[in-house]
Structures are given as C-alpha cells and as structure tokens.
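queue> pop job 88
queue> type: inverse folding (structure -> sequence)
queue> payload:
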C-alpha cells in the first residue's frame, strides 16, 4: 500500500507540471475551447484533447482503486482463511510477510516456498496475512511462538486439515496451545537468586495435561535455556493427540522436528501414507509415539530410534513396514514399556535384546513373518511383562513352561496362536495370578490337556486351544476359573462325554466351542445343568452325539450349532422354549420326525438350517411369525405340500435365502417364493 501511494503522488506531480490540470482558471472544456480558437491545426488539437481526457480518467481510476484497497484492507476476511485470498492479492503483502518467510526458509528451505500451493507457503500466508494474532516476527520474545504456529499450520495443510473430524480453534486467533488436541506446558522463570547449593536460575515446567504429571516424569525440563523458549513466560508444545481424526497425506512434514520437546505424538488410526522418517530420533524428550493403523511402508532401522532413551511407548502396528526388528533397533530404547509392531511385514527372529529391557510391559509382535523359537531371554528376564503377543507368525519349537511361571505375577495376556509350535500343552507348575487370556490355538500341539490345567489360572477369562491335535478327554478343571467367559476347544481329537457337573462353576461362560472333535454320548445330562446361565453360543457340530435333542436350560442361548451329528434322531420340539435363539443349525443329522409348528415361537431366529434330515409333514404356517428370519433351509428332507402364502410373505422383509425341495420330477414341496430348489 505504501508503494502504491507513492506512485499515485508521483503521477499527480507530473500532471500539475505538464498540463496544469485543475489549475486556478479551472475547467477542462474552457481550456479546450480556448486552445481551439488559436488556429492550431485540428489534428494537434485532437491529440492534445484526447491526452487530457485520458489522464483525467486514469487519475480518477487510480484514486478509486486506492480507496477500494484501503476499504478491503480494513474488512474482515469472511472467505477461506486457509489459502491465499483475493483480498490479500488486492491489498498487497503485510510487513510481516518477508521477515516470516526468511524465518521459515531457515526451517523448510527456500524450495518449499516456490510453490504457492505447498503446505509451507500456505502456512506462511496464514501467519503473515490472515492470523488474527498478527505476531511480530521481529520480536524475539514471539519467535518461538511463531515457529510453533508455523509447524502446526504446516502439519494441518500437509494432512488435509479442512477434512479433519475435529479441528476446533485450529488456524484461528486462539493461542496454538488452545487448538484442539494440542497439549502444552507453561514455562516461567524463577527468581535469579543463587541457592546455597550453587544452583543458578532454572526454568520449571508445569504440565497442563494429566498425561504429563511432573511427579511421574524423570526430568523437569531444567535443561531448557532462554534460547530455546524465548524470554520470560511462554508455552511450549509437548503433545499432539490427533488419533482417529481423519488425517491424510503422503508424508509427515519435516518441520515437526522443530517441536523438539514433544512428549507424546499420537497420529494413530488415520490415513497417512509414505515412509516413517528417521528424524524421529531428534525427539529426545519423546515418551509416547503412536503411528499405528495407517499406511506407512518401508524398512525400519536403528536410525529411527537412535537416542530415544526416554521413549516408553512405540506403537507402529497395522502398517506395511518391512525389515528386521534387530538388537540395534531396540538398543537405545532402554525405558520402553510398550512395543507394538503387530500386523506389519517384519521378518527375522525375535531379538534377544528384548529380554534386557526390564521396563517392558507390553510386547506386540503378532501378524508378521517372524521365525525361529521364543528366545530364552523372554522367559526369565521381564519382571513387569503383562502382554506378550507373538501370534500369526512362523515361530517353531516348543512352548516353554517357564514363559508362564517367570512372569506369573504380572502376565495378563499371552497370545501364541497361528504359529507352528509343537509338543504338548505346557504342564505349568505355578499359579498365574493375573492371566486373563491364553491362546495357543492353530498350532501342532499334541497329547493331553493336563488334568489340573485350570487350577493354575484362577483369573482366566478366555482359553483358546482350538485347531490342534489334542487327544484327551476334557478335564473339568478347565471350567473352574470364576470369571471364565470363553472356552474354545474345537478342531481337535478330544473324546469323552459332556456332563453337567463339569460346568457347575462356569456361571459366567458365554462361549463354549467343542466342535469338530470325537465327543459322543447323549446331551441329556449336560443340557440340564444350571451352571451355564450366561451361555450365549454353543457349538457342538461335527461330533458323535446321539439320541434326542434335550430341552436346553440355557436362558441366554443365542446360537446352537449341532449339525453333522449323525446319531441325533429327534427333539426339535424341545427347542421351542429357547426363545433367545437367533441362529439354529441342525443340518445333516438323522432327525426323523414331523417338522414341529412350535419352532414358530422362536421369533428371534435369524438363521434356521434343518436341511439334510428325514423331516416329514408340511411347512407350518406358524413360521410366518419368524419375521427376523434371513436364512431358511429345509431341503433334502421328506417334506410335502405347498409353502403357505404367509410364510412366502417373509421374502418381503428379511428373508433372503429360502431353500426347499421344490425342484425336480419327484419334488414334494410347492414353493413359489424359494430362492433355490433342492432335489
């Protein structure tokens, strides 16, 4: 605006000197009239008159433009505050623009500002032209605040900030520590007196978030210098918690290293892609780093974690990272409590150095392609270990019993499923005082389950041993833990029968999966037990149970699968009292009875499979009450007659699959609404 005013004044002087425009005598058309009377040739007179008219018009245009620009400069910017606006172009740059640009070039490099659409340039425009705070870049007290706002603004533009789920106060006149999910510390100087112990003045930091309780921290920021924080009082950013906030972009901005006192950076569960930069090693004060559940790729290496001796949480799970988790990668993480690298594409063996990090509480390495055996260092060197996740790898060898007992007082969650472990189920000789989840499923374990197995796990909630080659009977001790909610023993070679006495203490059991074993006998005694009031899902398919399906005294039962038990012969009517049932599958048994009308009382049913039996009669009209039904299979039976119109009406609601014997020359069912006809 200053340059524009000067140009306007220069034009005005030229007019007065050369044309005497607006002189004492005054009027343009009087002058022209006089000029014409002198007898000057008409072509010269025409040129001169046009020149004066043009100058007159230009002068008023320039004056109007100046006034218009001054008005625009004073107007609030009601359009987008995140990009270079037409208002900015019209009124020119503020006097903050160039000093700020020079400051930011030192951080981002000059090339970043050559593209006016780059995150860095857009951040510059916001701070220099649009920021209501109008911070002075020449004030050394404000320089650190300006840099903080710049870094946050670059992060905002780099990760599609306008599309974030939550962004309250971002890029507004609020102090950046008031922007949503930004955590700061208040910094103020103490007095200058030297203490008796010879200590000089220190700056103390009081952390405003419960995440950063000074009583729980091992440094108090006493190493902060005035050159780091500015002068006097200030606020520094110590945390960014942008978990599951809709961030997207191809990389994280390098400018983040300017927030060198970050304690927590949580960018988990977003849509970030690219590589995880090695510059994280600059965050020597970092306590918690969450980049999990994004789309980062590339190899991990020791440079990423170098110098992070204070890091307690490293969460990189659910990405596409490759490489090996070697000793060098973990060497400097001497304070680590939570290592989460699950569900990547990491290879190699489990590093032995893990056993030297005594502070470790959570190790999550599942869902990779690790191989080899469980290292001895994990068996007896981690006194604080609570969770050990090694599932879904290519681990081999036996499961050592010492991995239980050496962490018996702390281990809560042990997941070893979907590997290639061999041998027997470990014969534990200690009491696991806190273990809640134990999964050794989908391995190659053989032999029997120890008779006293459940006695060693009084706090167990879930036991997963399915998909092995176990051959024993089911020891009743398994069902002793008072808080047991799930026992999954399917797909083994277990034998024996089920008795009600086995489950007298299993009042909290929700899921009982015994499918695909060699269990037999009748279900009468088991069904009458009163010890399973909470049971919701019961899977007994692919066994050798026989006799009649008894009345099930399980009031919460929602799923009952007993298909492919060829010796079950009758008892469908006994299920009419199980009104909570949603899924019932009894296919391929030997049920030889009339299809009971009482099944129509199971109004919560969503799936009913009775195909592959010897059922007779017709499709009951009472089935019209099954308004939640989605799948109905009655094929491969001896049913006859027409499907009632009322039952066919279920196709207008939820019923999407309806199969009966309505096809072929010898079909006995007339069905106009079936989706498929069996023969």
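queue> result:
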């Amino acid at each position: 605006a200053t340059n524009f005013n000067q140009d306007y004044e220069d034009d005005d002087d030229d007019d007065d000197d050369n044309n005497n425009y607006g002189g004492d005598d005054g009027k343009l058309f009087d002058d022209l009239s006089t000029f014409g009377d002198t007898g000057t040739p008409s072509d010269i007179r025409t040129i001169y008159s046009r020149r004066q008219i043009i100058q007159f018009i230009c002068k008023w245009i320039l004056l109007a433009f100046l006034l218009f620009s001054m008005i625009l400069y004073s107007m609030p910017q009601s359009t987008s505050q995140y990009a270079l606006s037409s208002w900015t172009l019209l009124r020119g740059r503020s006097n903050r623009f160039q000093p700020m640009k020079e400051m930011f070039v030192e951080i981002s490099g000059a090339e970043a500002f050559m593209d006016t659409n780059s995150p860095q340039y857009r951040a510059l425009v916001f701070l220099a032209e649009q920021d209501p705070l109008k911070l002075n870049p020449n004030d050394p007290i404000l320089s650190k605040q300006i840099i903080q706002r710049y870094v946050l603004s670059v992060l905002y533009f780099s990760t599609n900030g306008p599309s974030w789920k939550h962004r309250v106060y971002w890029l507004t006149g609020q102090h950046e520590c008031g922007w949503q999910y930004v955590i700061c510390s208040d910094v103020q100087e103490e007095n200058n007196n030297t203490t008796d112990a010879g200590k000089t003045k220190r700056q103390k930091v009081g952390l405003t978030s419960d995440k950063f309780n000074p009583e729980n921290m091992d440094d108090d920021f006493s190493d902060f210098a005035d050159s780091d924080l500015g002068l006097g009082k200030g606020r520094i950013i110590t945390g960014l918690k942008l978990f599951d906030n809709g961030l997207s972009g191809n990389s994280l901005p390098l400018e983040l290293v300017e927030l060198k006192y970050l304690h927590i950076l949580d960018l988990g569960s977003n849509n970030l892609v690219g590589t995880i930069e090695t510059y994280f090693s600059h965050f020597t004060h970092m306590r918690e780093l969450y980049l999990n559940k994004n789309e980062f790729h590339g190899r991990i290496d020791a440079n990423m974690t170098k110098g992070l001796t204070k890091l307690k949480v490293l969460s990189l799970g659910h990405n596409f990272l490759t490489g090996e988790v070697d000793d060098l990668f973990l060497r400097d993480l001497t304070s680590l409590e939570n290592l989460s690298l699950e569900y990547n594409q990491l290879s190699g063996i489990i590093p032995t150095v893990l056993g030297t990090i005594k502070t470790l509480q959570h190790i999550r390495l599942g869902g990779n392609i690790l191989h080899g055996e469980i290292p001895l260092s994990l068996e007896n060197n981690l006194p604080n270990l609570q969770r050990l996740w090694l599932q879904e790898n290519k681990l081999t060898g036996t499961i050592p019993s010492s991995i239980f007992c050496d962490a018996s007082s702390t281990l809560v969650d042990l997941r070893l499923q979907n590997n290639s472990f061999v041998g027997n189920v470990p014969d534990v000789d200690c009491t696991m005082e806190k273990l809640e989840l134990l999964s050794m499923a989908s391995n190659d374990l053989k032999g029997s389950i120890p008779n006293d197995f459940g006695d060693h796990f009084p706090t167990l909630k879930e036991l997963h041993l399915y998909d092995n080659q176990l051959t024993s009977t089911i020891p009743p001790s398994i069902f002793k833990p008072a808080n047991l909610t799930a026992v999954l023993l399917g797909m083994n070679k277990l034998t024996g029968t089920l008795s009600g006495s086995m489950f007298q203490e299993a009042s909290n059991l929700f899921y009982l999966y015994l499918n695909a074993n060699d269990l037999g006998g009748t279900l009468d005694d088991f069904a009458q037990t009163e010890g399973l009031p909470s049971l919701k899902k019961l899977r007994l398919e692919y066994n050798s149970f026989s006799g009649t399906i008894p009345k099930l005294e399980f009031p919460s039962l929602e799923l009952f699968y007993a298909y492919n038990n060829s010796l079950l012969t009758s008892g469908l009517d006994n299920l009419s009292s199980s009104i909570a049932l949603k899924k019932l599958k009894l296919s391929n048994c030997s049920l030889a009875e009339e299809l009971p009308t009482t099944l129509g009382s199971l109004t919560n049913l969503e799936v009913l499979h009775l195909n592959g039996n010897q059922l007779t009669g017709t499709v009951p009209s009472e089935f019209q009450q099954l308004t939640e039904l989605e799948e109905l299979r009655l094929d491969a039976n001896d049913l006859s007659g027409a499907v009632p119109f009322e039952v066919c009406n279920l196709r207008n609601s939820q019923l999407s699959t309806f199969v009966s014997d309505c096809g072929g020359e010898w079909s006995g069912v007339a069905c106009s609404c079936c989706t498929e006809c069996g023969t």
